[in-house]
Amino acid sequence: RDPVEKGDLRCAGCERQLAEGIAFENDKDGQENGPIFCADCRETTLGPPCGNCCEPAAWPDALLAGDSWWHRWCLVCSESDCNAPLEDEYFVHDGKLFCEHHNMLRTAQLCGQCEKPVNEGIKALDRVWHKGCLKCAVTGKGITPGEFFWHDQRVLAASEQDKAAPPCAGCGAPALSERLYALGRLFHRKCFVCSHCRAEIGGRRFVEHDGEPYLEGCFHK
């Protein structure tokens, strides 16, 4: 190709400003918008430095990926034990290039059961799960979304609810959450109330009388 006049550009080889000079396009493979060189660098470097080996990446073996040019054989997954070619597809993570598999390992959410990356799964209890991992911790059977609950860091089927925790001393229902121990018994927080005024005691001071709790103000009335 004949020399072409360029505007305010810099040589991809020596980075010399080409505003008033003559530049050449390295167009061995006919691609448009290839790197621009001064007359000297076109013959000596034949391309910008490769993002991997730093040697000149010449056409037709130069590929643009991310912010760098690469030899086709240098454009591989950054995972040390992978080196899968990325000529057709790549993913950028923390400035490095990865194949689809290793990109998923870095970006995917982890399963609430096996703690391995989840590509496709179920979202429940503010977590994600592989379909095969969403099982009742007691029965080992699969669980239908909406028919389970979270208790003591475990997923349990709704049918196991009555067995999952001892009954509340106040209402008799399983004390699964928002619970406290007082007077040697287990209560839902909302069920631990003053025996006189029936107000929720919570973290307030109370007095025990005949095995029942009283707020201090009520006990001294």
Automatic annotation (TrEMBL):
Pfam families: LIM (PF00412). The keyword Metal-binding applies. InterPro entries: PDZ-LIM_domain, Znf_LIM. GO terms for molecular function: actin binding; metal ion binding; muscle alpha-actinin binding. Keywords: LIM domain, Metal-binding, Zinc. Coiled coil: none annotated. PROSITE patterns: LIM_DOMAIN_1 (PS00478), LIM_DOMAIN_2 (PS50023). Residues 48-109, 166-221 form the LIM zinc-binding domain. Gene3D superfamilies: Cysteine Rich Protein. GO terms for biological process: actin cytoskeleton organization. The keyword Zinc applies. PANTHER family: LEUPAXIN, PDZ AND LIM DOMAIN PROTEIN ZASP. This is LIM zinc-binding domain-containing protein. It comes from Chrysotila carterae.
